[in-house]
């Protein structure tokens, strides 16, 4: 065990525990808050792995923006405060989900650990200088394309959230047709 | 120096927890949280490999940054879809059929 091993084990244990809690807790808001803990500790994991820039972006974008959006979604959909068991499906589907989750974790872990698990490596490749040089050199056009993607997603979100008139008309139209059918004879 | 077994185990646990969340949850926002966990598992794998492989292009880190940006865009659109769903149906329970 090296120092980095101990650090990563401590932070990763918190990340894994809070990830499991985020998908199993009965409180809606607690799920979002456990997600904050998971994402924050993952930023710590990135720091241990030597990726300072990714850790900072994770904190800024994920913890700062994505979780706030999730909390907004919870508030705007009138999420109840307190435990509410109806947000998780029935026992049969939960057992099936647990089997599927364990299968994903087991298969992925088995493949990755068999392929690469035994290695003891140094983490020297993630220094910010090199990453920034490559990001604005080799990867500059995909990077610019991403800003276009963000703009498109922003406009799409705006358009989708202003669509209720169309869906509302569709929802009421069968009743209206039924009324007309009644009135015709 | 770090043993690769630890990050790889965390990747597997995160992906498994995310898959469980996507399948077991009924609330659309909670399903979204499961998707975020799977995305983060992929991100951790990218960063781990980017940190340990001698890659002059730094693909692992740069692609992890791209995934974070795309996840932000995805969450924005998903929030809009969930809000439209809520306005249309009055709930965001994915297991109940629509009106």
Automatic annotation (TrEMBL), chain A:
Record's subcellular location: Cell membrane
Keywords (A to Z) from UniProt: Cell membrane, Membrane, NAD, Quinone, Transmembrane, Transmembrane helix
Origin species: Oryzihumus leptocrescens
Catalyses which reaction(s): a quinone + NADH + 5 H(+)(in) = a quinol + NAD(+) + 4 H(+)(out)
Membrane topology field: Multi-pass membrane protein
Keyword Zinc-finger appears in the UniProt entry: no
GO cellular component: plasma membrane
Signal peptide stretch: none
Residues spanning the membrane: 32-49, 56-76, 96-118, 139-160
Family statement: Belongs to the complex I subunit 6 family.
KW Cytoplasm (keyword) present: no
GO terms for MF: NADH dehydrogenase (ubiquinone) activity; quinone binding
Function: NDH-1 shuttles electrons from NADH, via FMN and iron-sulfur (Fe-S) centers, to quinones in the respiratory chain. Couples the redox reaction to proton translocation (for every two electrons transferred, four hydrogen ions are translocated across the cytoplasmic membrane), and thus conserves the redox energy in a proton gradient.
EC number(s) on file: 7.1.1.-
Protein name: NADH-quinone oxidoreductase subunit J
TrEMBL record, chain B:
Enzyme class name: translocase
Main subcellular location: membrane
Gene3D superfamilies: 1.10.287.3510
Signal peptide: none
Catalysed reaction, written as an equation: a quinone + NADH + 5 H(+)(in) = a quinol + NAD(+) + 4 H(+)(out)
Keywords: Cell membrane, Membrane, NAD, Quinone, Translocase, Transmembrane, Transmembrane helix, Transport
Segments crossing the lipid bilayer: 29-50, 62-86
This protein's record includes keyword NAD: yes
EC numbers for this chain: 7.1.1.-
GO BP terms: ATP synthesis coupled electron transport
Cross-referenced InterPro entries: NADH_UbQ_OxRdtase_chain4L/K, NUOK/Mnh_C1-like
Membrane topology of the entry: Multi-pass membrane protein
GO molecular function: NADH dehydrogenase (quinone) (non-electrogenic) activity; quinone binding
Subcellular location field: Cell membrane; Membrane
GO cellular component: NADH dehydrogenase complex; plasma membrane
Its biological purpose: NDH-1 shuttles electrons from NADH, via FMN and iron-sulfur (Fe-S) centers, to quinones in the respiratory chain. The immediate electron acceptor for the enzyme in this species is believed to be a menaquinone. Couples the redox reaction to proton translocation (for every two electrons transferred, four hydrogen ions are translocated across the cytoplasmic membrane), and thus conserves the redox energy in a proton gradient.
Similarity comment: family membership: Belongs to the complex I subunit 4L family.
Subunit structure of this chain's protein: NDH-1 is composed of 14 different subunits. Subunits NuoA, H, J, K, L, M, N constitute the membrane sector of the complex.
Protein name, UniProt field: NADH-quinone oxidoreductase subunit K
């Amino acid at each position: 065990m090296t120092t980095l091993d101990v650090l990563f084990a401590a932070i990763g244990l918190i990340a894994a525990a809070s990830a499991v809690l985020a998908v199993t807790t009965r409180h809606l808001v607690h799920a979002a808050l456990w997600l904050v803990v998971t994402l924050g500790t993952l930023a710590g994991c990135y720091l241990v792995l030597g990726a300072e820039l990714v850790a900072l972006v994770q904190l800024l974008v994920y913890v700062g923006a994505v979780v706030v959006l999730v909390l907004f979604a919870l508030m705007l959909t009138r999420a109840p405060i307190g435990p509410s068991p109806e947000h998780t499906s029935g026992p049969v589907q939960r057992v099936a989900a647990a089997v599927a989750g364990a299968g994903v974790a087991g298969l992925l872990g088995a493949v990755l650990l068999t392929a690469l698990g035994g290695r003891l490596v140094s983490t020297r490749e993630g220094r910010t200088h090199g990453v920034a040089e490559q990001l604005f050199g080799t990867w500059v056009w995909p990077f610019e394309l991403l800003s276009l993607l963000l703009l498109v997603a922003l406009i799409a979100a705006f358009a989708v959230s202003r669509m209720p008139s169309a869906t509302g008309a569709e929802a009421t139209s069968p009743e209206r047709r039924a009324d007309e059918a009644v009135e015709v004879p | 120096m770090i043993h690769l077994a630890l990050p790889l185990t965390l990747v597997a646990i995160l992906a498994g927890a995310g898959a469980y969340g996507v399948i077991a949850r009924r609330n659309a926002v909670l399903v979204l949280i499961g998707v975020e966990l799977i995305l983060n598992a992929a991100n951790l794998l990218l960063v781990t490999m980017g940190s340990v492989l001698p890659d002059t292009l730094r693909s692992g880190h740069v692609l992890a940054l791209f995934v974070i940006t795309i996840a932000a865009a995805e969450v924005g659109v998903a929030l809009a879809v969930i809000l439209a769903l809520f306005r249309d149906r009055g709930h965001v329970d994915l297991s109940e059929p629509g009106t």
